[in-house]
Every structure is written in structure tokens, then in C-alpha cells.
Amino acid sequence: MSVIRENLYPFSTKAEKVRGKDSFWGNVFLRLIKNRMAVAGLVIIAVIIISAIFAPLLAPHDPIKQNILARYKAPSAKYILGTDELGRDILSRIIFGARYSLLIGVITISLSLFLGVILGVVAGYFGGIIDLLLMRLIDIMLAFPYILLAISIVAILGPALSNAMIAISIVNIPTFARIVRSSVLSIKESEYVQAAKALGASDLRIILKHLLPNCMAPLIVQSTLSMASAILSAAGLSFLGLGAQPPTPEWGAMLSDARSALQRAPWVVTFPGIAIMLNVLGFNLLGDGLRDALDPKLKN
Amino acid sequence: MLAYMSKRVVFLVPILIGVSFLVFLMIHLVPGDPAVMMLGERGTPEMLEQLRVDLGLNDSILTQYYRFLKKLIHFDLGRSVISNVPVNKEIGDRFPATLELTIFGMFLAVIIGIPAGILAATKQNSLFDNASMVVALFGVSMPVFWLGLMLIWLFSVKLGWLPPSARLTVGVDLLSITNIHILDSLLTGNLRALFDTFGHLILPAVALGSIPMAIIARMTRSSMLEVMRQDYIRTAYAKGLNSRIVIYKHGFRNALIPVITVVGLQFGSLLGGAVLTETIFSWPGIGKLSYDAIMARDFPVVQGSVLVIALIFVLINLIVDLTYSIIDPRISYS
Question: Using 50, 70 and 90 to split pLDDT, how confident is the model at B201?
Fold first, then answer.
């Protein structure tokens, strides 16, 4: 932890020093909430989290139950965002869809973070032939365009939301592995790591106590930004029929159902797309804000 | 420089071998019998056996991979299980459509994204800067398939200005020479086809170009901001140069490297990754080809197109790397 603090602390202003004197993360938080864009991102994410948690309380209608009498109703007081071809309330489906979107983001990125960190640490810390092989593997993965690799993996595993999530997790591993590896390479020869070694610390202890904490800042930023792209890709896969399957109220799948209704009922297409965009925007804003807060040197 | 280039090309070999092996493995990673999976309900036991023999599925994995590589060297990617057309012919037919769309989309992204980024950087914190960066943020956050649908709704359904799908209106004839329609209609002097092609290109190109445009604008802005803070820029201003020369000659040229990287990477990924855009606009390119093949479980076509796309992607990334030294002679690779 000390290395990060040495790098970043000199840039904090006087006021911050008085308030968040001892805490690196306190300083980061102060810088973050001063950034209007980041706060906007936090607010968007908070709204989505709240709708996900309280979906049954907030949704005015059942998200799955069909009502043939209410097909393609335009937005009105009863159906605020209108209804789809099976007479389901779009607002309710969007509110419930927040659950899928967030779960997809959190689960896929946790998985790729976990695997990416292991690969990166092993490659960077042990070096040699292991490093060479792992990095060539990463290069091979990076030789495929992002969405195409995800689609190919789903093609192998078969279309399902869980498989789409596995695919997106795999596709995101290289970014995390590279970040961790380069951090590990830059600090593993530093004196305090050598000192820990001399004191007889085990490899695992050095990795967990000394190396990983130093990767935290870039990993947090990258996870937030990757969350945005994971949500976007999952929606894309569901839209193509390779992810969430009907009648799941997942936003991408909702758009897929709605394609044929473009002429009759444009609201069926409009609102799920706005939901996806806002969710992705929230994570992008937060990610940018975190990057500026964690490393003020980079701020433009 | 030459040494660096040849080193980079040599480094490609293991990657390409790895890529080909992964693509080859695809068919074997699918749970169950690949023959049954491809033919599905249609397959009689004789048809299944015939397919296994055709695909060589009865041999050992290594023998199969060896045969796969040997055919690959002769550009033989096998035949489509559905249409029985050779896969390299299918790809050859579809690729010009993707190339045309990608070039047009990237053209839009570059001619709007770069000037917007420069202007935003030179007027930092102005209304234009803030507005264009907010638009760019929405741009990177927007699902491209949704943007495509909204464009179709507005410009095809509501206004009726532009066609929603395909490359040419039925009934418009065009002699296919390169299968790049703009080029073909220019070569044959077919103005009707030229205008028709443009009409069909606009919506998918705008949808495809929107995300790269946003990324390019953001990258140009931050790279310019970084450069414009340098001492030599202040010197250039101090010696009385007009700001246009300072911005373009001293500033932009030096800010170009990260911008080129982004343009190149985006170009590479669009060339192969336009699955969503091509599907929405029924654009008969390689992205739609691979998507249709995946849905039909036509694995030779999936393998072939994924392989070709990955190859193009890797080559473009290499070209981007090599371009640096031309733009910026200070970079040496010894």
C-alpha cells in the first residue's frame, strides 16, 4: 500500500490533507465525489441497483405475465412506457431487467478478474517459461476481435445466458492478466519485496500482502470500465439470440423480440435501449472518475 | 527498422499457429458428436457417417489438425455443410461488402471524430468541449444494435428517406467486378447504382462508425491536451506563429500516435466484428455470414470466417505498429 500512497499523496490538495489525512482511500473518495461526472455515474448506478433490489415493489405490473388484450399499447398513465406484443408492461420488464444487467456485469467481471489476476500473478511472479507460455496464450486470445470471440465461444457452448456470461468472462481475462503482470513485474524486484523474501515470507504471502495491493488501483478502474463493456456485450449476445432466452426480461433480449414491432410500436424498441445505454454510461462515468481520482497525474 | 519488421513477422507465426489450432478445436469442443450437431434432426445414420468421413472426424485429433493445416496452406477451408459451396468462395464473395461498409464507417468516424477532438482540446472546458465529450460518452455507451434500430425507425420507417437493409434496391443492376459496389458503379459509369449504393451505405455506416467516432474524439482530445502543454508549443506561440500552424503542425502531428493506434484497432475490429450491424441491416458481409453460420451450426463456415477475421485483425495490428515509425521518426526499433 505504501508505494501507491507515495506515488499519489503529493498531488492531493491542502484541504484534502486536513480532512482525509491518514487514508489513501479517503482521499480517493473525496476526489471522486468532487467530480460531477463521476457523481452522475454513481447516481445512475444507484438508481439501477435500487430498481434491481426492489423490483417487485417498484414494478407496476408482472414482467412475464401476458395480456393479449393489452398488446402494443402506447405509453399511457396505466402503462407508462407502453406494452409489447404479448401485452407485457415495458416499464416493469425494464425494472426487472436491471437485475439481469447488474448480475451479468458483476458475475462476469468477478470471474475474469479472478482468473486474470491468477494468470497475471503467476506469469509475472514466476517468469521464465510459464510467463512465456501464458503470455502467448493471451496474445492468441487477443488475436480475435472481442465480440467475435464471445460469439464463437457461445457457438461452442450453445445459446444460453449462462454460456454468454462464461464467454464474456473469458474474453475479458487478457486485460486483467496484462495489468497484473506488468504491475507485478515492476515491483517484484523492489527492496521491500526482497526484504520480505529475505525474512522468509512464502510466495503466497508476498503475492497477497505485497504484490496484489499494488495492483488495486488499475484493477478497480479496469473492472468498472469492463463492467460497462460486459453489460453491452451481454445485451448484444442476447439481442442475437445467443444469451438470455425469452421470456426473460433481459434488456438485449427485449430488443430482439421488439425488432419486428419497429413499425407499429417504436416504444418497444426505444426504452430497453435507453436502459442499456444509461447503465453502461453509469459505469463508464464512474470508471473515468475513478481513474482520475486514483491517479490525478493522468487527469486532463 | 527492417530487422524490427522481420522480427515482428516472425513473432506472428506462433500466434497464427495458436489461432488456427483454437479455430480447429472449435468443432471438437462442442459437446456431443459434431456430425449429429451439424446435421441435427435431418441426419440419417448414412448421412452422419458420410459427414464424419468428409470432415475426417474418425481420425485422431493430431491427424485432423495436420490435414486442416495442410489444406489451409492451399487456402482450402472446406465446404459449407448447408450450401456445399467452398468456404473460401463464400468468404471471398462476402468480404468486399464488409470492406466497403467498414471503410465508409471509419471514414465518417475519422472525419468527424478527429476534428471534434482537436477543437474540444483547443477550447478546453468550453461549451463545445463539454457538449462533444458528453455526446462521445453517450456514443461509447450506446448499444450499436439499438442505434441501428433507431436509425431504421427514424430514417426508413418514419421519414422514408433511406432504405433499411441490403446493399442495392431490387431492380438496380450492377455489373460485379470487385463486388465493392461504389468501385463497380464508378468503373462501369453506372450513376444510378452509385447513388443507390450510397443510400444503402449511409445508415449502417453511421451505426457502425458511431462508437469508433466517439473513441477517436476522446482519444484525440486527451492526446492533444497532453501535447499542447509541452514547452515547444509555448515556444511556437511565443515566436509569433499563428495558432492554426501551432495546432496542426506542432500539436496535432505529435498527438497523432495514440490516435492512429485507436483508428487502426477500431478498423481491425470493425472489419471482423460488425456482426451486430450487419445483422440488423441485413448487410451481406462476413459478420452476417459468420452469424448465420453459427445459427445454422455450419461449422466449416464458422471456422473459416473466424480464421480469416482473426488473420486480418492480427495483420492490421501489425501494420498499425509499423506505421508509428513512419509518422514519428523519433521512434527507433533497434
Answer: very high
pTM of the model: 0.85
- For A2-53, what is each residue's pLDDT tens digit? 444 444 444 444 444 445 456 778 888 888 888 888 999 999 999 999 999 9
Handedness of CA A38, A42, A48, A49 (dihedral sign): positive
How does pLDDT run across B297-309, given as a tens digit for each residue? 888 898 898 888 8
pLDDT band (50, 70, 90) for residue A298: low
| Residue B79 bridge partners (DSSP) | B86
Cell numbers of B13, please? 507465426
Mutate to test the interface with A, among B149, B265, B290, B299 (most CBs of A within 10 A): B149
- Is residue A24 included in any domain, yes or no? no
Q: What is the DSSP string of B271-294?
A: HHHTHHHHHHTT--SHHHHHHHHH
User: Which residues in chain B touch residue A101, judged by CB atoms under 8 angstroms apart?
Assistant: none
Q: Is A80 inside any structural domain?
A: yes
User: How many structural domains is chain A composed of?
Assistant: 1
With respect to residue A17, please indicate whether it lies within any of the assigned structural domains: no
Kindly tell me the sign of the dihedral angle through the C-alpha atoms of B247, B250, B253, B259.
negative
From A228, A174, A183, A238, select the one nearest A210 (Cα to Cα).
Answer: A183
Structural class in CATH, domain B96-327: mainly alpha
Domain-embedded: residue A291? yes
ipTM of the complex: 0.85
Q: A132 CB near a chain B CB, below 8 Å?
A: no
Domain boundaries, chain B: 96-327
A195–chain B nearest CA distance, Å: 36
